[in-house]
Amino acid sequence: MKYRYKNIVLRDMVESDIADRIRWLTVETAWGDWDAPDEPIEPIEPEAFREELLEAVRKLADKPNDEHRWRFEVDADGAHIGRVTTYCIGSDYRWIKESNRYALGIDICESCLWNKGLGRRILATFILYHLDGGIRELYLQTWSGNNRMIHVAELLGFTECSRIIGNRTIRGGVYDSITFQLDLLVFRQYLNG
């Protein structure tokens, strides 16, 4: 399964991605300082993780292309640079197993590519994918110290709908948890602008 918008491709994981995924959890780990940094990256045993990912690749190969996906690997200009995921949140904006409220997350794992506008394009592509799949209620969650993610969210039409004050301690500082909801009209204006 592949979904393309401009120079961004969201696609199923393939075997050649496994080396990158292992590197992103062992060497190139700076992305973890921004994606839920109060939950440190868990150490992995590379061979066991490789086997786990190979099994995931096999399962994805058996899925029909028209089955809605909740996570993808991300390519920009043909290079594998990260991943996106979707998770469910409840009416209190906390993670739950199932709901019709979907929060989006992106990880640009190649830190040399930060601050180049890729986050905005990746998130816009992921939003379009879900909209094309009939999902209209989309959210994004981050922490108040992640100014880049907040900026991207606001550019694309997300507005703050929940803030939990001071519930995250990150690198010695205290931060808020923020949930944004997508305003579809503003997002459409962004696409047309």
Explain how this protein is built.
The chain has a single domain, classed as Aminopeptidase (3-Layer(aba) Sandwich). Helices cover 31% and strands 31% of the residues. It is built from five helices and eight strands; from the N terminus they run ββααβββαβαββα. An eight-stranded mixed beta sheet has the order 1-2-3-4-5-6-8-7. Strand 5, helix 3 and strand 6 form a beta-alpha-beta unit.
Write the layout of secondary structure elements.
Blueprint (H helix, E strand, L loop, with lengths): L1 E4 L2 E4 L6 H9 L19 H17 L8 E6 L2 E10 L13 E7 L9 H15 L5 E6 L3 H10 L1 E13 L2 E10 L1 H9 L1
Parallel strand pairs: 5-6
Antiparallel strand pairs: 1-2, 2-3, 3-4, 4-5, 6-8, 7-8
Helix content: 25-40%
Show unreliable segments. none
Q: Major β-sheet, in short?
A: 8 strands, mixed
Number of strands: 8
CATH architecture designation: 3-Layer(aba) Sandwich
CATH class: Alpha Beta
Distance between the termini: 29 Å
Q: Tally the helices.
A: 5
Task: Specify the structural class.
Answer: alpha+beta
Output mean pLDDT: 94
The fraction of residues in strands falls at 25-35%
What is the CATH T-level topology?
Answer: Aminopeptidase
Number of domains: 1
Taking all Cα atoms into account, the compactness measure Rg is: 17 Å
Order of helices and strands: EEHHEEEHEHEEH
Q: Given the C-alpha coordinates, what overall shape results?
A: globular
Provide the spatial order of strands within the biggest beta sheet: 1-2-3-4-5-6-8-7
CATH superfamily: Gcn5-related N-acetyltransferase (GNAT)
